[in-house]
Amino acid sequence: MIPTDTYLLNGRETVSRWRAAPFALPDDTAVEVSTFCFNEDDRLIIVSMDGLGWALPSGAGAGDESPDEALTRAVAESAAAVVERSVYLGAEEISAPGAAPRFVMRFWARVTERPAEAAAREALDPETAMMRIKPSAPLCAWAALHAALEVNAKFRPLRDFYPSLPKKRMAAGALFRNALGEILLVKPTYRPDWLIPGGITEADESPRQGCAREAREEIGLEVVIGRLLCVEYLPREGPKTEAVQWIFDGGVLNAAQIAAISLQAGELSEYRFVTPGEALRLLNRSLGRRVTHALRALRSGGDVYLEA
Predict the structure, then answer these.
(1) Taken in order 43, 49, 53, 59, is the CA torsion positive or negative?
(2) Distance of CA 98 to CAs 12, 13, 95, Å?
(3) SS3 letters for 74-111?
(4) What is residue 45's three-state secondary structure?
(5) For the chain, domain boundaries
(6) Could you tell me the fold of the domain covering 166-307?
(7) At 30, is the pLDDT very low, low, confident or very high (cuts 50, 70, 90)?
(8) Is pTM beyond 0.70 here?
(9) Is-contact 57 81, C-beta < 8 A?
(10) What is the third-level CATH fold of 4-161?
(11) Torsion of CA 283, 287, 292, 293, to 10 degrees
């Protein structure tokens, strides 16, 4: 049964019918949108022009705007919010004697709020918000809200969604050389093989930022990290979780920089500049493979992607 409301609008008997998705609007129909905007706290946003009458963020399409474009603009202008994700729910068909039917497309949206006048926007639980709106076509409005709540249950707030995604370790190192083209290696105190300067990237730190920080911490040099030379994906292996390993161009260190090298106490015991061949003997197999490809990329001017 199609939810249907009959009411007076501007003195004329008006009928509203809820047309659930995937209902498609007739061709050449003017775009009108109305959106159930849920914030990160799962509160429904309503807006007001005067602080007395309340409505969902709504608007008419401008020019050749698509429904999605009209939705994004209407929410930004009326609710001072940014649409992160949206789903079409259906349309309310509004008919009155002597007039062509109007269609208001209803959407669900997850939004991020921006600063706005307190009187112009409120975020309430959905039922309270609908009571504040007092829709003239309540059966259609509640049918649309029910559809919005079903979608909202599937698409959780981004702050819940992103922490649930798989996580990968990342580490970044730099290929530093001297004037002879020899490679800088460091000897950790906690493992038998040698490494290039670098380490695990921290939360909210880019690979290049992590590489520069590790250089500062491990060898005491403040350097500008250059271009990417090699990146490798490593799958899970025993207790080791999957990882992405990056190697950047650290550049050629001059005599003053080499003299200023200061090893991280407790972490590193010595450093050496070695030929590429000697480096492969001192590095473990995995890092040696990446360094080999990084040296090739350094000569060719390109970069390399690897998978173990």
Answers:
(1) negative
(2) 10, 11, 9
(3) HHHHHHCEEEEEEEEEEEEEEECCCCCCEEEEEEEEEE
(4) strand
(5) 4-161, 166-307
(6) Nucleoside Triphosphate Pyrophosphohydrolase (3.90.79)
(7) confident
(8) no
(9) yes
(10) Nucleoside Triphosphate Pyrophosphohydrolase (3.90.79)
(11) -170
